[in-house]
From TrEMBL:
<dbReference type="Pfam" id="PF04773">
    <property type="entry name" value="FecR"/>
</dbReference>
<dbReference type="Pfam" id="PF16220">
    <property type="entry name" value="DUF4880"/>
</dbReference>
<dbReference type="GO" id="GO:0016989">
    <property type="term" value="F:sigma factor antagonist activity"/>
</dbReference>
<feature type="domain" description="FecR N-terminal">
    <location>
        <begin position="14"/>
        <end position="56"/>
    </location>
</feature>
<feature type="domain" description="FecR protein">
    <location>
        <begin position="108"/>
        <end position="204"/>
    </location>
</feature>
<protein>
    <submittedName>
        <fullName>Iron dicitrate transport regulator FecR</fullName>
    </submittedName>
</protein>
<dbReference type="InterPro" id="IPR006860">
    <property type="entry name" value="FecR"/>
</dbReference>
<dbReference type="InterPro" id="IPR012373">
    <property type="entry name" value="Ferrdict_sens_TM"/>
</dbReference>
<dbReference type="InterPro" id="IPR032623">
    <property type="entry name" value="FecR_N"/>
</dbReference>
Length: 317
C-alpha cells in the first residue's frame, strides 16, 4: 500500500541512484554532499526515493567502500545503477533480498544460459563456471573465498605462490562452506541444498548449522544448512560439461531433459508417459536443438516446437 500511495517516477529514481553512486565513489567532495542534501530536501518524492535506495544499501550492502568502487568496470557500475533504480521504484514491502537478482547482476564472474567459462585465478587456481552461474571472489590476506550465488562450478586449487603463509581456499554457498585441502571438486547450488562432488584430494565441509565432515576423492553428497544427505560415488561424467558434453548412462528421460533444460533458453517440457524411458550417450551441449531432434531416432517419442523457445516431448503413438 505504501508504494501505491507514494509512487516514485523513473526520473527521480535515476536521480536517487546517481546520488547514491556518487557519494560512494570516493570522488564526492563537500559540495557534492551539500547538493545531494539540497536535492533530497527539494521534494518529498526525492527524499522517499533516497530512503528506499539507502535502505537497500543498509540491508544488503550492494555498494562497497569507495576503494572497492574504484575498481568496478563500467558494466558493473551500470548494473548497480539499475538495481538502485529498481529499489527506488519498488514499494518498500518488496525490498527483500529475494525480490531482485542482486547477486548475479553484480557478480564478479557470471555465465548466461548455455554459456561456460574457464577462469585462471590470481593464486593459480582454475575455476570453471557452468551454465547460468554466478560467483564473487573475496581474496585477502586471510583467505581465498569463492562465493557461489547460483549455478555450478568446478575448482582445481592452486598453490598460491604469491603469499608466504597459507591462505585457505574456500567456497561459500547458501548452506555452508567448503574448504579445499589440495583438491579438485565440483559444487552445485540447488534449491535448499548444495551438491558437492570430490574428484581429487579432500575437502572439509561445514554446514551453517551442525557439525562438519571431511570428504575424500570419489565421494559425493548433498548438504543442507543443518546436516548431510547420503554419501554416493562421484562420477567424472557429471563434469563433462567442462568439455561441452552431457554424458549419461541409463538416465531417466525426465532427468535428462531437466539437465538439458539448464543449457537452453525457454521451456522444455515432456509428457509423464515418457519420464521413465532410459537414455545413454554423449551429447554436445553447444547444439541442444540437435540433441532434441535426434531423440525420436532412439526413443519412442516425438519432439514438437510450439515456438522456438517452447519444446514439448511426447510419447509416439
Amino acid at each position: 500500500m505504501q508504494g501505491q500511495q507514494n509512487p516514485i517516477s523513473r526520473d527521480v529514481a535515476r536521480q536517487a541512484a546517481h546520488w547514491m553512486l556518487l557519494l560512494h565513489s570516493g570522488e564526492a567532495d563537500s559540495q557534492d554532499h551539500a547538493d545531494c542534501q539540497k536535492w533530497r530536501s527539494a521534494r518529498p518524492e526525492n527524499e522517499l526515493a533516497w530512503q528506499r535506495v539507502a535502505r537497500v544499501q543498509e540491508r544488503l550492502g550492494v555498494l562497497p567502500p569507495a576503494v572497492g568502487m574504484a575498481s568496478f568496470n563500467r558494466e558493473r557500475r551500470q548494473g548497480l545503477k539499475k538495481l538502485l533504480i529498481c529499489a527506488a521504484l519498488l514499494p518498500a514491502g518488496y525490498l527483500a533480498y529475494q525480490s531482485l537478482p542482486w547477486n548475479p547482476w553484480m557478480a564478479d564472474h557470471r555465465t548466461a544460459v548455455g554459456e561456460r567459462r574457464r577462469i585462471e585465478l590470481a593464486d593459480g587456481s582454475l575455476l570453471y563456471l557452468n551454465t547460468d552461474s554466478a560467483v564473487d571472489l573475496h581474496f585477502d590476506d586471510e583467505q581465498r573465498l569463492i562465493q557461489l550465488h547460483r549455478g555450478e562450478i568446478l575448482v582445481t586449487s592452486g598453490r598460491d605462490p604469491g603469499y608466504p603463509r597459507h591462505r585457505p581456499l574456500r567456497v561459500q554457498t547458501a548452506e555452508g562452506r567448503v574448504q579445499a585441502l589440495g583438491t579438485r571438486f565440483g559444487v552445485r547450488q540447488l534449491p535448499g541444498q548444495t551438491q558437492l562432488a570430490m574428484f581429487e584430494g579432500a575437502v572439509r565441509v561445514e554446514p551453517l548449522e551442525g557439525k562438519g565432515r571431511t570428504l575424500s576423492a570419489s565421494e559425493q553428497l548433498r548438504f543442507r544448512r543443518d546436516g548431510f544427505g547420503a554419501m554416493s560415488v562421484a562420477n567424472e561424467q557429471s563434469i563433462g560439461w567442462q568439455r561441452g558434453q552431457l554424458i549419461v548412462e541409463s538416465m531417466q528421460l525426465a532427468e535428462f531433459l531437466a539437465e538439458l533444460d539448464r543449457y537452453r533458453p525457454g521451456l522444455l517440457r515432456h509428457d509423464p508417459q515418457v519420464a521413465d524411458l532410459r537414455i545413454s550417450g554423449t551429447f554436445q551441449l553447444d547444439n541442444t536443438d540437435a540433441i532434441l531432434t535426434a531423440l525420436p531416432a532412439t526413443l519412442p517419442v516425438t519432439v514438437s516446437y510450439r515456438t522456438r523457445y517452447w519444446v514439448h516431448v511426447a510419447v509416439r503413438e
